[in-house]
Amino acid sequence: MNLRPAKPLLAPSILSADFTHLADALALLETAGAEVAHVDVMDGRFVPNITLGMPVVEAMRAKTSLPLDCHLMIVEPLRYAVDFVKAGASWVSIHQEADPHAHRTLAAIREAGAMAGIVLNPGTPVETLVDLVGDFDFVLLMSVNPGFGGQKFIPRILDKVRRLDTLRTERQTPFMIQVDGGVSTGNAADLVRAGADCLVAGNAVFKAADPVAAVKGLQAEMAKGRQG
Ligand code: DX5
Ligand code: ZN
After folding, report:
1. What residues make up the domain containing 57?
2. Which ligand 1 atom lies nearest to the CA of residue 13?
3. pTM value > 0.90
4. Which of 5, 15, 66, 139 is the most exposed place for a label (fewest CB within 10 A)?
5. Count of C-beta atoms within a 10 Å radius of residue 56
6. Number of domain units in the chain
């Protein structure tokens, strides 16, 4: 199955939105034409920050038709991954560094009916995925150290995207490549050119003076990247 989207997808992260007005943030993303809503779940253990859990995902599910992409920055993700699918997540990703049994957790996410993703921190090589190819629907490459929005993009990640793109070509397994952290109009085209299919953007959307224009500006850069 080809899991690569026909056009690159933008997944704004609601971590940078006003948490007292999440329904408005989701409505804004729909109006702007964003394809996915990225939801950052942090447990204060895997990362030094705590955000939200299943009840908030369930509340958001009731307010939008956008796919909810839950990025689990938590230890022992098997304990909760299926609960996030039940709460309404369409995509669930887990950190490889947080799970010695990623194969089992990815299978549980798929079995529950969501797209399963595996996330790599900046220092985790893409080569560690070779024996999991086929078991995930997408790979999320972190381009900052996870835990906070608004950090600086690590340019070395571009090379990781290229190496992962090569891996999926070699293995003839067209999984989706997602990149998260410090994404902006300054790097969106390069990331897509390198092979990224989905970009997460928090501050670049929600801290912009005009978030709707920011979504469209990022999508325009991403389209340039697909054109070559
Ligand atoms: C970081 C989160 C990101 C974050 C991105 O730990 O996983 O999704 O919200 O925010 P920006 O785009 O501001 O770096
Ligand atoms: Zn994220």
Report:
1. 9-227
2. 9
3. yes
4. 5
5. 16
6. 1
